[in-house]
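Homework-ish question, so no full write-ups if that breaks the rules, but can someone show me the predicted structure for this set?
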Amino acid sequence: MSTRTVGSPVQRREDPRLVRGDGRYLDDLGHDALAAAFVRSPHGHARIVDIDTSGAIDVDGVVAVWTWEDLAGSGTAEEPLPMLLPHPSIEHPVTGYALAKDRVHHVGEAVVMVVARDRYLAEDAAQRVRVTYEPLPAVVGVEAARAAEHLVHEEAPANVGAYFEQHLGDAAGQIESAPHVLELDLDIERSACMPMEGKGILARWDSEEGRLKVHASTQTSTGLRAALAAKLGLPLSAVEVITPDVGGGFGVKINHPWPEDVAVAAAAMRLQTKIKWVEDRREHFISSAHERQQLQHVRVGFDDDGQILGMEAQVWHDHGAYLPYGVIVPLNTATHIPGPYRMRNFSVTFTSLYTNTVIVTPYRGAGRPQAAYLMERTMDAIARHLGKDRTQVRSVNFVQPEQMPWDLGMVLQDGRMGIYDSGDFPASLEKLKELVGWDDFEEYREQARAEGRQVGIGLACYVEGTGAGPYEGGHIEIETSGRVNVSTGLTTQGQGHATVFAQIVADELGVKIEDVHVTTGDTRRMAYSVGTWGSRGAVMSGNALLLTARKVKEQALRIAADALEANPDDLEIVDGIVRVKGAPESQIPLPMVAVLSNPLRYAFDETARAATQFGGKSDESKPPVGDAEHPGLEGSDFFSPVRTTFANGMHAAIVETDPHTADITVLRYCVVHDCGPMLNPMIVEGQVHGGVAQGIGGALYERMAYDADGQLQNASFMDFLMPFATEIPHIETDHLETPSPLNPLGIKGAGEAGTIPTTAAIAAAVEDAEGFPIRRMPISPPELWELRKQHASNTTDPS
Amino acid sequence: MSSTPDAQPEARTVRGTVVTTVPRASFDPADGSARPEELIDVYLRVNGAERHARVPGRRLLSDALRHDLGLTGTHVGCEHGVCGACTVLLDGQPVRACLMFAATAQGHEITTVEGLSTPDGELGPVQQAFVECHGLQCGFCTPGFLTTITAYLDENPDPTPEEAREAIAGNLCRCTGYQNIVKAVCRAAELRRGDDPAPDGTQTPPAPTQEEEQR
Ligand code: FES
Ligand code: FES
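A: Not a homework solution, just the prediction itself:
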């Protein structure tokens, strides 16, 4: 038997190439391309009075200097960028332009594009463009947006872009009659994905063929392709988008088209050449996308056991200057607030607000970290109020395993009902308590106290809708050499898809994993795909490839059965050889089956020549390729689930807070994670580690520091504090595998899990160490120090 | 308003502007930055080979390696000296290639990630350890870690996990959470010492060759 690889920690097939420096990331391509650089707005909000490009065109090597007017004539490139995901809650949709038209709405907005022989010269020229602005008052932060003293867009009254509510049961009534009621104000700050590689695009116009070929560091090559074709007035078939190696995404590379995509591609077409733009770090900070900032108000009613009877949440969400990606983030927050808890009387209202800051699009977790923060801070407040153990209060609220599938009662961001398909929350909590030593913590606290150290423990739970549809596809083709070419349209940003997908196909086809070669994100190979986001890669493309492999296997067995004069049901494929079960001497190698699948009588190679031995008598009455057949051993299939599958997990953190400096150190971090059966546990763990590190960054270090005018004051790695190795503890993991009934592999997504409850868990641990509520995250030592001062002078607990 | 590449350039102060491929024949002598740049010959010794590039004096070493010499393994993540993605070895010491001019690197021995494999293409110990320990995800930060760790293990061939963590604390990775990189540092030390057993039962199908992984 071939060794099954699914479920094993198979080493990654992409690594040898990447560790040699042979990766091909966007900026590694197109060395002979012209380079674009952008003149960006220095103002948070201003009217453009005049643009003087005369100085720029004097620079040696400059090829083009474009303002908004130059976009006209390239399809609809001069019109506003699309609103990608319209939603009935969006009252006032506003999107930006590829190059700013009359106004700029955030610092960093692209105003002028310069194309030159190389990037140095393009930047020289960009510096010589003179733009005259009339500054307007900027709206920064949720409070200013809510106050609406000034408007970001005249067409969006009160700065509201979207408003929606979801109601379940009778929250208000239940709270009214509940024995206990608590109210909390919560605040969570802006952070960002910050992949190590920024965005970028290389666009070449092939004037002989009239085709646009684009390489882009995108999370959705099919989406970018369709968007560019539409904006540039090209037939879809004349545009192809290829995603090379991508240096991380975490959400920010999902939005499309970016202004630069349109401007660069339009210029490549117009100048009939090749143009590349590679974002630099400062550009990434001030012109890509951020996420996370929300103000939240919670009102909750509960009984003496801590069982929630009714809960109301009001959320104000800062979505930045434009709304190109719709309201996915707040919708995710709203629908993920209940988490693993039974919530039958619940209401949430959401106000999504314009501000003069960088746009907000999904960042790993996409609105769910805010939901976990809201719910878990509430759980802790209830426990504190009742003087109960925090795990106990959670336990009494858990959806029980026998209640699965659990109907959440809410519509998810994909427009479908949320129904938890699998999970065992009590078992997960047991595992977590054991892993972190929850019950022994008081002893440890005492011990630490005796040493003059102050420690605290916290936990947080979450569920995550993963593997959202609508579909993903696969294509598999077996060459006569035995090489198995696998394609799927979704893109890859480091998740190990080339390995995991090869595992699935190798197992299902019965071939060696070394023979399987995976291509992702190339619209030439698979034109239908949704994209890589929302922990959906393995669930969607993994299952699509499983189905495809089954189909191709069926075809192979049918052809082999003819050749071996056997029944297809009696055949198996082992290590690339089709043989009769129980009579392995009767066999035919898969490459030869590939030869037979294509009745073309050229003997290109050894296999083809050898295949003649199997060329049995043909039926003269039938054509060589039958009605239901096609030449070649290949096939395609799609996977489209009825609904989202729910992964879940629980995290616990132990922190130490310095009694003098208020420095916060994460001593231990424990994760219990349930994404169903793991295809490759090594890769799942890697995803969890990375997610937790981003979560810790978001909890303790990262925040976008805007001033009142909309200047981002920490737009560099020097000032925006992303954690280094010394800030991240060793992460301890354990897994529970409850299979999903919603797909053949039984899996649930794992990509975002690590990030979702981290801020909540750390807030809880700091709160536990300090003894006063933590309601604003991230928290820095100076802030903790201030809080200590406040609480020392004011002993009444605000909760 | 826009024109074709062949149109005569015209300087204007209105919205909408100019497309030109015609190099400016005359410059304002008072304004140096519009002048064609003077190019200098830079001779670099990279991964044991003598290389030449004709570049402006301000050409960064990272750009010269990547774009003039085609050694794109060295990555640029911030261009301001914090992330370490661009780290190369200069006479065996890690330096940030984004903070250095190509011209200043003349006369020094430069090692990039491409120089960490053996001449016959086998992975070096640090590279091998990264593969074994899942020390990379997107791989963008990886070359900078590999060079940094290579230099570190020369100084400390037997680090504890804590020391390993300190050793990599000058490089940013947004994907891995560092845990497996720490593990890889320790594993690389083992490999350098010739301790062979692969870690915790991971299966090791032969690594695909470069050709096999070409798309
Ligand atoms: S690119 Fe050189 S340190 Fe970041
Ligand atoms: S592996 Fe992606 S940044 Fe380190």
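Now go work out the reasoning yourself. Hint: Strands of chain B lie at 39-46, 49-56, 87-90, 93-96, 109-111.
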